[in-house]
Design goal:
globular, 9 strands, two-stranded antiparallel ribbon
Length: 257
Amino acid sequence: MRDPLEAAEDELRLVLERATPELAAPGERLGQVRARIVRRRRRRTGAAVLVAAVLVGVGTVLPQTLRENRPEAPPAAPAPAPLPTREKEREVRFDGLHGFTIPLPKSWHTLEMPAVDKLGAVAMGYIGTQKLSPFERPCGAKLVDQCAPVEKLGSGDVLVTVSVGALPDASGWGPPTMNPVGIRNEFCERIGGSEMFVANAGLDAEPSDLLAVMSVCVDKATSAKTLDDLQELFYRAHPGEKSSGAAPGKQSGGTRR
């Protein structure tokens, strides 16, 4: 039986190795994504303000006599279709990742792969917009990025790989903002991804704070809205409670969700 302190140190070292290299990557791609999101929201808001201004002007500027004697107005145009509502969510808890919990759209899928101490493989969690399948280890042992629960990303799909380790103090990590990875990533390329992002989250928890590393592989057709929604979900991730949330499917007989 491994010493618990030694096991925790090894786990944190592996998680930190996944977190550190990506922090220096340039932010051009994510900046472009955010710019598109901002432009889209401004256009939507600007259109609403313009319509409201026109309606107010029509009601207040016309003289009273013109309002009383104007010809019968043509039939009103049909009301515009309502904006699509956000998909319903559920909270998913990864028990093997120190209880890491994140809200996800109900149509998304999750998978948890347990740690394998004799191989030095830490527990891993996966989040995807397509179905995820368990895989056998070893598939690279400590090089967990050689393992994948999908053969190929579909058009517009996303695959998130999550690893969590104990951390002495989470206060200096800040919000889990997605940063683009500026170096070639063979794991993401192998499953058909065109770009990769990483977000690191320091979480206050007991008995130890946690560091969660979330690596995001995206297809070239993945929309800015999907990335924006995913960023919001990362902000809302938390350690969770033992009794809350739905557990992802596990390799040892669990049901995939």
